[in-house]
Each structure stands twice: as C-alpha cells, then as structure tokens.
Here is the input.
Amino acid sequence: MITKEISTEESIARILSTPLVQRVNRPAYGSKLFELIDKPVTDEWVLLASDYTYEAIENNEERVVVKNVSISTGDEVLINIEYLENDTLKNVSVDLGGINATA
Here is the structure.
C-alpha cells in the first residue's frame, strides 16, 4: 500500500478541526478548539483559541515550528498561523466554519 503524505497546510487544518480524544488510537491528536463552540468572542476567547492552536500544532505536526498565531473574528473565525518549515517562513489561514463563535 502506498501512503501519500498530506501537505503541511492540510495537516494543520485537520489537527485544528479534530477534537482531542476523538481518535481512539491517538487520543492526544487534535485540539481543544471545540471547547470554544458557541461561546462569546472576548479577549479571553481569542487568547484561548491562540493557545489551543499553538499547543495542538506543536504537539501534532513535527514538520513545523509555530512562530505566530493570530485570530480574525467577524462573520467567520479565521486562525492565521505563521510557521517555519525547512527554514522557510510560511503562512496558513484556517477557517473554523464548524466553530460558531458568537459576538
């Protein structure tokens, strides 16, 4: 069987959209972002979302080193991640359409 390695961007999106303990064989895979579903977007919410994002990527994606996480809120929640991969600075934005934050 040939296994295709997924891109870093796709891996990051999967990690962030997977709740912790959802995968039986890998309970530490995923993020705590789902704890923020339907909670009001406050300064604390943004801080927790940033922390959960950083923690999830650092624990589950060994190809990257996270440099910065920022959260864009509005009609949709976007997590913007700046990271190093093979000594190259890259950016990815993840739309958390499944996470409904309330204003």
